[in-house]
């Protein structure tokens, strides 16, 4: 079978965003033995979208329409496809209930355009949106398969992996299941991952390996097809062992929707450890990352944002003259900040950040220079020097993840000792 992908969105034609969904879906289809021979990008215009669908029908067995399922006036994909195929749009009851619950929670009235997110072409199989509100759909008509998928990647990718791929496997009639395992790594780039795993990647058939770049980290998807989930897992286990033997020092967890912050919060809960932070470079971004995770309030009571040396000294009860002598961006200051935060917050462990985010050097210290300190009860403070590439935002983002990784490794070591 061959497929054609149609990405919908004027913002892609204007270069405002990149069509990452097309690349992601093409990879998944190739693992199923479905060739993606053509891809189109069209704006938010029903006439041009219908013309794109007609063109795809002339050369593809499967037609995927990516995006345009939302509630705004330019979200017209499902209406255009339904009109083209001569079918009505009907309501998916579970999706409508989810929409109503969301509207009630937001104290908003349910409007007609919002209801469109729960509609799908009559006769189609609904693809549940576990993350967002707009449902997807798969419709068989006249020997072709038509698929509607949402545009936001955070909704698109889970729907493809958890709803679409199993359905396509079943429709192929092979009696097989596909099982994927996602491994997450920090502190190593994609090119190095590919280099370290070059022989495994070159020899892959079943199971397969695929790398994906996430913000300042890398994920590796291992996928196996077999007659049962147990058989597929048996294929994945030795492959993961081979990967872990080479990349284990950078590994931190599993899952598409996992994160370093989530792993840290789980570790804090397991060890019953209270954490605090003192942030100069990152200006509270580390604490915000922790606060995004439900349940963190049991282990994180608050912290400090201390940019100026005077503020560091006042908030953390430190010797400002010592900080001035050592310099704001120094091993001494990183350790002192962590120790001060630990004492002032009465926590069990503290992380500190100080550095130069850029865009240029500061006091003779080059942009990207970052010290991350850690202090724990009954232990001497430590600090590590990092040199992060990229923009000001990238340096700060990498620093936050490096701090989370540092804390996670500390908690894991504590767990092993205890």
Name its key features.
Molybdenum Cofactor Biosythetic Enzyme, Chain A, elongated, 3 domains, 17 strands, 418 residues, Maf protein, 5-stranded mixed beta sheet, Alpha-Beta Plaits, alpha/beta
Give structural notes:
It is a single chain. The protein is an alpha/beta fold and 418 residues long. The protein has three domains: 172 residues, 3-Layer(aba) Sandwich (Molybdenum Cofactor Biosythetic Enzyme, Chain A); 76 residues, 2-Layer Sandwich (Alpha-Beta Plaits); 158 residues, Maf protein. The strands form four sheets. Strands 2-1-3-8-7-6 form a six-stranded mixed sheet, sandwiched between helices. Strand 7 and strand 8 form a beta hairpin. It is elongated, with a radius of gyration of 25 Å. The mean pLDDT is 94.
Which structural class fits the helix and strand makeup? alpha/beta
Oligomer: single chain
Helix content: 40-55%
Distance between the termini: 55 Å
Radius of gyration, Cα only, in angstroms?
25 Å
Arithmetic mean pLDDT: 94
CATH superfamily of the largest domain: MoaB/Mog-like domain
Task: Explain briefly what this protein structure is.
The chain is α/β, with parallel strands linked by helices. It has helices at residues 10-13, 20-31, 46-57, 77-85, 93-106, 112-115, 153-171, 190-196, 198-202, 229-247, 260-271, 285-291, 309-316, 320-326, 331-345, 392-417, and strands at 2-8, 35-42, 62-66, 89-91, 119-121, 125-127, 136-141, 144-149, 177-185, 208-214, 217-226, 251-254, 275-279, 304-305, 349-355, 369-376, 382-387.
């Amino acid at each position: 079978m061959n497929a054609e992908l149609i990405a919908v969105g004027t913002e892609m034609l204007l270069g405002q965003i990149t069509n990452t969904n097309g690349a992601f879906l093409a990879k998944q289809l190739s693992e199923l033995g479905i060739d993606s021979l053509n891809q189109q990008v069209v704006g938010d215009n029903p006439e041009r979208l219908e013309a794109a669908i007609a063109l795809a029908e002339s050369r593809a067995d499967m037609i995927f329409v990516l995006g345009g399922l939302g509630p705004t006036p330019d979200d017209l994909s499902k209406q255009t496809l339904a009109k083209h195929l001569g079918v009505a749009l009907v309501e998916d009851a579970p999706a409508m209930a989810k929409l109503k619950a969301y509207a009630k929670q937001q104290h908003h009235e349910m409007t007609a355009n919002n209801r469109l997110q729960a509609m799908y072409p009559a006769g189609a199989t609904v693809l549940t949106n576990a993350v967002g509100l707009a449902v997807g759909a798969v419709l068989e008509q006249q020997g072709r398969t038509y698929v509607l998928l949402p545009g936001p990647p955070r909704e698109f990718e889970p729907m493809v992996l958890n709803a679409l791929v199993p359905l396509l496997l079943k429709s192929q009639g092979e009696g097989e299941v596909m099982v994927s395992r996602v491994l997450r790594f920090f502190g190593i780039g994609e090119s190095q991952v590919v280099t370290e795993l070059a022989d495994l990647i070159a020899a892959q058939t079943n199971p397969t390996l695929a790398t994906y770049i996430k913000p300042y980290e890398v994920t590796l998807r291992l996928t196996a097809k077999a007659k049962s989930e147990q058989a597929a897992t048996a294929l994945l286990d030795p492959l993961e062992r081979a990967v872990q033997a080479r990349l284990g020092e950078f590994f931190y967890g599993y899952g598409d929707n996992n994160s370093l912050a989530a792993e840290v919060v789980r570790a804090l809960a397991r060890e019953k450890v209270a954490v605090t932070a003192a942030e100069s470079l990152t200006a509270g971004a580390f604490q915000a990352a922790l606060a995004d995770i439900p349940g963190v309030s049991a282990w994180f009571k608050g912290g400090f944002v201390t940019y100026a040396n005077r503020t560091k000294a006042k908030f953390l009860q430190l010797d400002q003259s010592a900080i001035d002598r050592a310099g704001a961006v120094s091993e001494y200051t990183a350790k002192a900040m962590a120790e001060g935060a630990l004492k002032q917050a009465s926590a069990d462990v503290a992380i500190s950040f100080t550095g130069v985010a850029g865009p240029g050097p500061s006091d003779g210290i080059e942009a990207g220079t970052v010290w991350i300190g850690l202090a724990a009860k009954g232990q001497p403070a430590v600090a590590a020097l990092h040199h992060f590439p990229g923009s000001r935002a990238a340096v700060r983002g990498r620093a936050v993840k490096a701090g989370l990784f540092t804390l996670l490794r500390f908690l894991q070591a504590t767990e092993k000792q205890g």
